[in-house]
From TrEMBL:
Domain spans labelled Ricin B lectin: 39-177
Leader sequence segment: 1-27
UniProt keyword list: Lectin, Signal
GO molecular function, one term: carbohydrate binding
CDD domains: beta-trefoil_Ricin-like
Database matches in InterPro entries: Ricin_B-like_lectins (IPR035992), Ricin_B_lectin (IPR000772)
Protein name per the record: Ricin-type beta-trefoil lectin protein
C-alpha cells in the first residue's frame, strides 16, 4: 500500500496520471486503436473511524452532504478520483456523480460543511494532498487553508465531514483504499 501511495503522490506532484484535466491537445477522441484510459478510483477511508467518505445516501445531486458511512466500494457513489491540477493540488471528484468535494459557500471558518457540487474550478473545490505516512494523506483546502476533517472526531455512521484548522490528528487523515 505504501508504494502505491508514494506513486500516487508522485504522480500528483508531477501533474500527471490521476485524472489530469483534458488539454486542447488531449481533448479529442482517442485514436481508434487506443481505448480511452479510465481514471483510477478510490475509497476515502477516515483515519479515526475506518468508515468511508461519500455523499449522503449515495446521492448524485448537487448539495449532498459529505459524511462517513459503511464502505460500499462496489457503488460508484462511494468512490473518488483525484484530478491533478498541478503540483500536489487536486480536485476530489466523485466517480458516481462527477461532482467535486466543495466547501459550502466557499466558507473559510471552522466547521463549514463539505458537500458535493458541480466542479467549477473554484478554490473552495481545490485540495492540497500531503502524505502523512503509514498510508494516510491529508487534504488542505486551497481557499481556507483548513483541512478535511471528520466532525468532532466522531466515529459513528453519518458523521459529517467538514473543514477545521489542520492539526494532524486521526480525524484529518484519510486512506485511499
Amino acid at each position: 500500500m505504501k508504494s502505491r501511495l508514494i506513486r500516487l503522490l508522485a504522480a500528483v506532484a508531477l501533474g500527471g496520471w490521476l485524472a489530469a484535466a483534458p488539454t486542447a491537445a488531449t481533448a479529442g477522441a482517442a485514436a481508434p486503436d487506443q481505448p480511452a484510459q479510465a481514471a483510477a478510483t478510490f475509497l476515502l477511508v477516515a483515519g479515526n473511524s475506518g468508515l468511508c467518505v461519500g455523499p449522503a445516501v449515495g446521492s448524485p445531486h448537487d448539495g449532498a452532504a459529505i459524511l462517513q458511512d459503511h464502505c460500499n466500494g462496489h457503488l460508484a457513489a462511494w468512490r473518488w478520483e483525484l484530478r491533478s491540477l498541478g503540483g500536489n493540488l487536486v480536485e476530489i471528484r466523485n466517480a458516481g456523480s462527477d461532482r467535486c468535494v466543495d466547501v459550502f459557500l466557499a466558507g473559510r471558518d471552522n466547521g463549514v460543511a463539505t458537500i458535493q457540487y458541480g466542479c467549477n474550478g473554484g478554490f473552495h473545490q481545490h485540495w492540497f494532498v500531503t502524505d502523512k505516512g503509514d498510508g494516510y494523506v491529508e487534504f488542505r483546502n486551497r481557499n481556507s487553508g483548513k483541512c478535511l476533517d471528520v466532525a468532532q472526531g466522531f466515529r459513528h455512521l453519518g458523521a459529517p465531514i467538514w473543514q477545521w484548522d489542520c492539526h494532524g490528528g486521526a480525524p484529518q487523515r484519510f486512506k485511499l483504499g
